[in-house]
Amino acid sequence: MATSAGDSSILEEELTCPVCLELYRDPHLLPCGHNFCLPCLRRLKSRSDHGRLRCPECRQSHRSSANWQKNFKLANIADGFRRRGQSERSAQSRSDPSHRPAEVRCDYCPGDGSEDGKGPMAVKTCLKCEVSMCPKHVQPHLELPAFREHPLVEPLNDMRKRKCLEHDEMFRYYCMDERLFLCNACTIEGTHSGHCIKTLKNTMKDFKVYLDIQMHKTNRKILKAEKNRLEQKEIERHNKAYRDDTDQHLEAFRETSIVHLDAFLSSLRESVSTYDSEQCSGIQQNLSRIAQDQTRLQEVHSGFETLLHESDPFQFIKDYNSSMKRYQKRLRKPLFFPDEPTVDTEPLYETMEGKMGEFIAELRQHASTLISTLCELEGGDGEEEVDDDEDDDEESFDDDDDENESDAEGEEEMRSEEEEEQHLTESEDEEYTPEEEEDDEED
């Protein structure tokens, strides 16, 4: 599906006239080999000087009086692609109501001609005439040569937002330096001279490349957060195993001295439970912090994914400018990395040792044996795992080296990306401050 969509996008780009930025309508060929819509060539000819016409693509000069040859094969391909796109959009609108455009009525039909009194639904909007038309009134635009240069798009109900207030023309370009939408007149008058100006379609393409990079960074952080969660789960499992072993020893001791040691065992269980609660409370706090990191990164990931799926250049850039700074600020917030757990059984030992003195002398030996066993469980597991830990340490050193190398490469890659993408965003990758964290909590 993604490959098909990418191929369709490449084909559409090849079938787009460089002058009007719409699919070719009646394309003609210049002697230099470049194709343009016939109305676009006529418009260029009317503006040419000294009977010479300069190709907008290669800037090669040609005689204005030369006969331009129609490219019939290219015209057929463009018409077929246009019809296929219209049928696919119509089928998608019928099958999925969530993809249907907002209700836009025909500007030519009276409101009282329909059942709801609002006029029939529009099927196309002409960006040049700035009107929306129903199937009946759109026919002249599709059939008459006079309307061939008029760009038709899906019905729009926000035409005023897409027009330049100064020149009353549709936005077709975007100034990367000033982050402004521009019409044709804005680019000619010179107020943006020397600025990086791109078409809306190319701007969306550049922004999506940048979003792909941010998506990759987000995915890496999500993987690190998941790794932290799994490590904490392993610690939690280890503590649970310790608690289970403790219960087994206590149960064995209870069976041999049930008469004399019921009260003592209750105090031992209370001590072990207190110790375990202290251990688990820190783990639960760590898991909560990690869950917050995952939620925050998943929200950024979803935001990026939503932007990448946006197909309307205007709406995409508008959403990008309004949300990108917030997403970047959240990405700059460092991940929470828990401290290495420390196991200290000395307080537990002292508590049990003090309670043991309350029992009668004949039970002192049995109680001492039990307490020693309970306190050695944690330390004993550590001794058994020394050899394994040494091997794991060697592997971890290798992993750390690989991770450090990958981090260094990643930092170098990120620095080069930031240099290449300075025209896409003015925000810098500064340290995440407590003030920004408060802003995130408010968001």
From TrEMBL:
Keywords: Ligase, Metal-binding, Zinc, Zinc-finger
Ranges of Acidic residues composition bias in the record: 378-443
Keyword presence, Ligase: yes
Domain RING-type, chain residue ranges per copy: 17-59
CDD domains xref list: Bbox1_TRIM8-like (cd19802)
Domain B box-type: 159-200
Coiled-coil annotated residue ranges, if any: none
Annotated stretches, region: Disordered: 82-102, 376-443
GO MF term (any one): zinc ion binding
UniProt cross-references to PANTHER family, sorted A to Z: B-BOX DOMAIN CONTAINING, E3 UBIQUITIN_ISG15 LIGASE TRIM25 ISOFORM X1
Protein known as: E3 ubiquitin/ISG15 ligase TRIM25
Organism, scientific name: Anabarilius grahami
